[in-house]
Write a structure and sequence with these properties.
Length: 37
């Protein structure tokens, strides 16, 4: 699960660096919360 979370986090970081606003920070938190459970 930690690997999956890291991959998702890395992917979101790349999107933020590209200023891709298709996903909001709330969506990112929801993804993280789902993976921690």
């Amino acid at each position: 699960m930690q690997k999956l979370l890291f991959i998702l986090f890395e992917n979101q970081t790349e999107k933020l660096e590209r200023k891709d606003e298709n996903i909001s920070s709330n969506d990112l938190h929801a993804i993280q919360n789902t993976n921690w459970n």
